[in-house]
Design a protein that fits this description.
The chain has 316 residues and is an alpha/beta fold. It folds into three domains: 43 residues, no CATH class; 191 residues, 3-Layer(aba) Sandwich (Rossmann fold); 64 residues, no CATH class. The chain contains eleven helices and eleven strands. The protein has a seven-stranded mixed β-sheet, sandwiched between helices. Strands 1-2-3-9 form a four-stranded antiparallel β-sheet, with no helix packed on it. α1 packs parallel to α10 and α8 crosses α10. It is globular and about 60 Å long. 33% of the residues are buried. The chain binds zinc ion.
Length: 316
């Protein structure tokens, strides 16, 4: 077992169980608080400032923004039930399509993004007020109605101070909206270390219990938790490897994982783009079907990701 492991949630440094054993690293479970994580000693230096290449940018530019915005409207709908307007800050705003959707839905938006290519794209092509900065270096106090973290918290080495900083940046009763890969989802429990979402750039693996405990212990009240299924990720990370493997005509077919490891981020985007080039009425119909399926799966708690909406408590 890895030496000097420390649980980032409760500070435990001795009592761990091996959750699963991957080829080059071990995933541990804290016996004290049940938090599942990859110990620091295994972490490669993931350089987020260089996370996406120019080839990926070209592919994103070639994609259909209308379609991406339709997907994000579901997220906005979920947030509007609690905060119909105000200031919204997207932390790790990526390519900016969510922020763009929030802006057109009436929120006053801003965001931060560390990676250069997505940052430049959001500012230059989507005209969004995004800064390229490390959230820990910025000083915000009681100024946002909503902070969103879409697939960000799993990458953060120090989730506790990070969540505390979000709390300070929010106005009283402000909302923190988080999406993370869900380690207690059906598929994650089945696949363990072979799960698509498992890898060295994801250090934290939250369950419903550990994420809600993290928030409750740091000034938030959890309002809503539900599983989420990302159709784009499904297309790029599940469907594409399946199709590529199907197309291999040899007796010794590679495993899905081997096929998957040889697919570049740009190739995934291009594959997604091909699907987005259907005529608009067809896309519109696909979106309606997607939204129905999404709603149903979410109600049944089926999905690889977890979305949690929490409110800043006004008193401790
Ligand atoms: Zn712990």
């Amino acid at each position: 077992m890895s030496e000097h492991a420390i649980c980032a949630l409760c500070g435990e440094h001795e009592r761990f169980t091996v959750y699963c054993q991957a080829h080059t690293y071990q995933v541990l479970k804290c016996n004290a608080c049940e938090f599942i994580f990859i110990p620091q000693s295994y972490r490669k230096a993931v350089n987020y400032t260089d996370y996406k290449s120019e080839a990926v940018t070209e592919a994103v530019k070639a994609g259909n923004n209308w379609l991406k915005i339709q997907r994000h409207k579901l997220r906005i709908k979920q947030i509007k039930r609690y905060k119909p307007g105000g200031t919204l800050f997207d932390l790790g705003s990526g390519w900016g399509h969510f922020l763009k959707t929030a802006q057109t839905s009436g929120y006053t938006v801003s965001g931060v993004e560390l990676s250069e290519e997505p940052y430049v794209y959001s500012v230059k092509y989507l005209n969004l007020p995004v800064q390229r900065a490390d959230f820990f270096q910025l000083n915000f106090l009681n100024q946002f109605d909503v902070i969103t973290l879409w697939d960000v918290l799993e990458h953060i080495d120090r989730p506790v101070p990070f969540v505390v900083k979000c709390n300070h940046a929010l106005k009283p009763n402000g909302l923190l909206v988080i999406q993370v890969p869900q380690i207690d989802s059906f598929i994650a429990r089945k696949k363990k270390c072979n799960w698509n979402m498992m890898g060295l750039d994801h250090v934290n693996y939250f369950s419903r219990k550990t994420l809600s405990n993290l928030l409750s212990a740091n000034g938030f009240e959890v309002l809503e938790m539900r599983s989420s299924w990302e159709v784009k990720l499904f297309i790029m990370y599940t469907l594409l490897p399946l199709i590529k493997r199907f197309k291999v005509h040899s007796k010794q077919k590679p495993s899905i994982r081997e096929v998957d490891q040889n697919i570049s981020a740009a190739e995934r985007q291009h594959f997604f783009n091909r699907i987005t080039r259907f005529p608009k009425p067809v896309l519109w119909m696909l979106i309606q079907i997607h939204n129905l399926v999404y709603g149903l799966l979410s109600r049944l708690n089926i999905g690889e990701e977890l979305v949690i909406i929490a409110q800043k408590r006004t008193s401790v």
